[in-house]
Predict the 3D structure of the following.
Amino acid sequence: MTSYVLTVSCKSTRGIVAAISSYLADKGCNIVDSSQFDDLDTGKFFTRVSFISEEGVPLAELKEGFEPISKRFAMDAEIHDGNARMKVLLMVSRFGHCLNDLLYRWKIGALPIDIVGVVSNHFDYQKVVVNHDIPFHHIKVTKENKLQ
C-alpha cells in the first residue's frame, strides 16, 4: 500500500471535488483524508487530499494521469509521496511553547519531518535547539530592518 498527498489551488468552480474523487477512484485509490476551503473573498478553492493506492500505482503515472484534470480547472496541483519526510525550517519567537511541542513530537517520532534548522530573532532557545543537534540561526531585528 502506497500513500500520497494531492494539493490543489485554483479558481473555485463546480465539479472540482467530483473530478478529483472520480479520478482517484478510477485509479483504484482510496481517500483517507480530505480538507477543502473556498475563499469567498478571492474566489479561490484549496484542497489537500491524502489517499492510498493498494495496487501501488506509481507516482509518475498518477501525476501524468491527473494532468487533464489540472488543465481543465487551471489548477496549481501537486501529488507527493505521502511517506516522504518533509524538510522543515522552524521559526521561533521569544515564546517557546510551540517550539517545545514541535521538538517533543519530532523526537518521539510523531512528526515525520526533518528539521533542518531553527531561526529566531532571540537567543532564548538556542541551547534547547542545539541540545537536539539542530542548527540554530539568529537573525538580528532592529528598528531599521524590522519591516523587512
